[in-house]
Amino acid sequence: MEEEWELDPAFAQRDALRKAGRPVEIARTERLILRETVEADIPALYRIGRDPRVEPHITPMKPTLEEETEYTRAYIRHAYAFYDFGLWTVLVRHADGESTAGEQKEGGRIIGRAGLFPSERLPGQVELGYLIAPEQQGKGYGRECAAAILKYAFDVLELPEAHLFALPENLVSVRVAEALGPQERDLISSDGGRVLHYRYTQLLGRV
Known about the structure:
Helices cover about 30% and strands about 25% of the residues.
């Protein structure tokens, strides 16, 4: 007798939202909202990504906003549905009560992008990445959203592990990576240089 296969209700709900053109909310922390990116977010994310203080540490944005918009539209249509994860928009909740730079959106203000993506350094594995606008750094937002992402990765997606890479000189990322409580850390050669590699199998850090 063929075993009956049952679709996970939570996944089915996420799938239904995407098919309806609505973003899935990934996490809601004390101060932040993480949700799937929508087209209206692109100009704000583009401005953050093209900031000269940010550009050296991320995958380069497209040369123009129009090209970035076309690329991100395709990403929204395909990546979330295919992987059931991706890079998401980070917003400060209105309830945070502080004046924040960024684009005003329903529920908060855009301050960056963060999430999960297939690793190129470790085939078959998933990496964690985050980008917070320079003027919003130093407030603990990076640690708060990274902890929420790892919790989502283990509790909702049931991933066995996640990885994070940071340049040793990028002290902001290193502090976040250490605060999350990695189970393993090492220094490896990558792209002609040295990079710190963190491996997480559960969330241990107190963030």
